[in-house]
Write a structure and sequence with these properties.
The protein is mainly α and about 160 residues long. It is built from 5 helices and no strands. It binds fe (ii) ion (2 copies). One fe (ii) ion binds near residues 49 and 96.
Length: about 160
């Protein structure tokens, strides 16, 4: 595997672990407010991010590359509103999509068909991730911050 592609894949492992941290923090934010449904949703998202990190790790291993997990940066722990948390999640998913596309572009240019193909799963996954977080942000904004707790009913009906 091309060293530049490998570097981006290793960086992505770190990015996915940071997504995990962001979602764990989000889950704790809502748990502290007694919002069990929102806390549960973000916990589930956090679990998904761990799976993403491992998918990248396993791929690097299978492809014979050296796994180098970068330093995991802490994520924002203070939020001024519930809406802010949903906005952070949506924004982060958009950033994640951009990173996946950048790796896939480089894989394509490097004729690294295996990496390009592996990333196809992530392209579809990011459509779902952006759709979910984007929709929730729209709904939370629709309710307004003073009706934040209505998201609990919304989420319990959706599950
Ligand atoms: Fe992810
Ligand atoms: Fe995600």
């Amino acid at each position: 595997m091309n060293q530049d592609v490998l570097n981006l894949l290793n960086a992505q492992i770190g990015h996915e672990y940071e997504n995990y941290v962001l979602y764990e923090q989000a889950s704790a934010y809502f748990d502290a407010k007694g919002m069990d449904e929102a806390a549960k949703l973000f916990r589930k998202q956090a679990d998904g991010e761990l799976e993403h990190a491992r998918k990248f790790t396993d791929y690097v291993r299978d492809a014979g590359g050296k796994v180098v997990i970068p330093t995991i940066k802490g994520q924002k722990s203070e939020y001024t509103s519930g809406e802010d948390v949903f906005l952070a999640a949506f924004t982060r998913e958009q950033e994640t999509t951009a990173k996946i596309y950048a790796i896939r572009d480089l894989a394509w240019k490097s004729s690294d068909h295996a990496t390009f193909e592996m990333l196809t799963w992530f392209v579809s996954e990011q459509v779902e991730e952006e759709n979910l977080t984007g929709k929730l942000l729209t709904v939370v904004r629709g309710f307004g911050e003073k009706n934040l707790y209505l998201i609990e009913a919304y989420l319990s009906h959706k599950a």
